[in-house]
Write a structure and sequence with these properties.
This is Prephenate dehydrogenase. By secondary structure, the protein is mostly helical. It has one domain. The chain contains three helices and no strands. The longest helix has 30 residues. The chain starts with a helix and ends with a helix.
Length: about 100
Amino acid sequence: MQSILDKLKDNMQVIYRRALDADQSLAKLHQQGQGKFQQVFADDAGFEVQSKRFGPYVEELARDIVTLENQTDTETFEPQLANVVRKMELLFSTLAGFKDSLKG
């Protein structure tokens, strides 16, 4: 279980750095009058937070990982792990797509 948590933390560091870069790019787009969306993810994406930036989603994911790390009940560990992995995959794919869209 510790190796899973270590891998999640490693991925979290990558997501954090990419989210910082993406949020800087979003700030620049906003200053240029672009980026007129209400939130990064749809309401049904599985995140509780709603934001125009990636940072709050990364913070929510970090809280989920801490909760998972402190989990002692093995029955609830797997569903919580699945939720963390789903959010992580969504962040990775959305951040990659955003970075690609900036290149075009």
